[in-house]
Structure formats: structure tokens, C-alpha cells
Amino acid sequence: RLPAPTLYTQWAPMFNEDLNWQPANDPCVQLLGGGWRLPTSTEWTVADAAPQLWTKDQDAYNSVLKLHNAGVLENNGGTIGTTRGTMGRYWSSSQYDRTMGVSLQFNATTSEILASNSAGAYKSFGYSVRCIRDAVTATVPLVSNVLAPVSGMKASSAEGSATIVTDGKAELSGRGLVWSTTNKIPTLADQVLPATSVLPDGSLLGDFMQTLTGLSDGPTYYVRAYATNAIGTGYSPTVTSFKICNPVTVVHSAGLNGAPVDKTITYGT
Description:
- The chain is mainly β and 269 residues long.
- It is built from three helices and 17 strands.
- Strand 5 and strand 6 (111-114) form a beta hairpin.
């Protein structure tokens, strides 16, 4: 599940950076995980050359890569131009210079590797990407943030739920919640509440819910989910925090602090 896209109302006309596309920002890594990446300009050149000899868009589509005319998004004179159905441009991870990157372009009559030319390949343009994988690379698991709804809180307990999104390409050995009242970024060195529930197939992937017990009125509780495999332990990217506020009875007296009538009210947890 991917986060909702952000709508940007102002187009970035140009980037000026002396860098190739960095792994930390590689969309293939972010969306598919370790081992995946954007192809380099050299790899696109090899794909476009013999023995494939792509000469037009039909050649690219008939290849095992099934590349198609996905169109482009680029700032031309203040307008966003699209060529969906007539042109395909696919980014590489290689830069041409500080402002331009190297891409593969094809249409009904040509197929070529482009960097700096009359058409331009500015790093701020929106082209399609095609991800490749060198090998399956195991990483730590990916874990969601913890949800601790008020409806699940009692006088001395609270429910926390989370999702193990991916196992990191290695078998999971444990998952659960970690929490603390003093460490604002809890780890396995703090209070640990292992989750024992599994899916029907025995997998630890997916959703789970645990109940934190022995809580009290007053302290702030900091909670994260965790999952462990052979590579290490992954935690929720953001810490969830909450307080337990136990029931309190208040006597309201008519005319005092704006109370219209005498009334005794017990406010819940």
C-alpha cells in the first residue's frame, strides 16, 4: 500500500545538482525494496543496441521489457506537455551534467539514448521508470506505525495494532510492540510485548494487535512495532505516544464557573 500522492501546484523548472540518481531516493528501492534499482545509461544503451536493434517504439514494446509509449511530463513554456501514445521516455540513474539526466526515448520512427539535445532531458521532467533487479537482497522487515485508538484504552491497558508490510526477503522470527515511558524511541532494549498470532499459512506478515497492560494514569507511553528476521530488526518509522486518563468525577455547582445547574458528572477513561 502506497501513501496518497501529494499535489504540487508549482512546477520545478530545473534541478542543479552534480549527482547521479542516488540509491536513497531511487523509486525502485523505495517501492520494491532491496536489490531493485533504476537502470544506468549504459544498460539502456546495451538494451537499445544489437542484437535487439530497437529502431522505433514497436521494437521496444515487442521486447521482453514491454516498454510502451507512456508519454512524458515536462515544463514547456509554462505548460505541461504530454505525448502519451506517441512517445516513451524512460529515466536512467545516470546524469549527463548538473541539470540534465540520460534517458531512453522512442517513438514511431526512432529509438535512442538522449541526454543533452534540442529536446532536453532535464532532471525536473517527469519520465517513466522501469526497475531492474540484480539479485534478491535481504533487508530488515518493513513495519507500519502503531495505531492506539482511544476506544481501546482502559484504566490500566491500551490496545495497539500494526502491520508487517514486508519480511525483507528473509523469514521472520518475531514481531510485536516495544514501549517505554522514558525512552522516546523505544527498542527491544525496553519493554517488549511479542505477538504470537500468525496467519493461516503460518506467516508473521500482515496485521496484528496486542494489549499493553499494567499501565497507569499519568505517564506518557511511547510505542513502536517491530519485526525481526536474519538481517536484523525493523521498527515503525514514527513513534506513537499516548496517556491514560482514568475516570474522574466532577461536581458542578450552579453559578460557579458558568455552570447553569448543580450536576455531578463522571468523565470516562
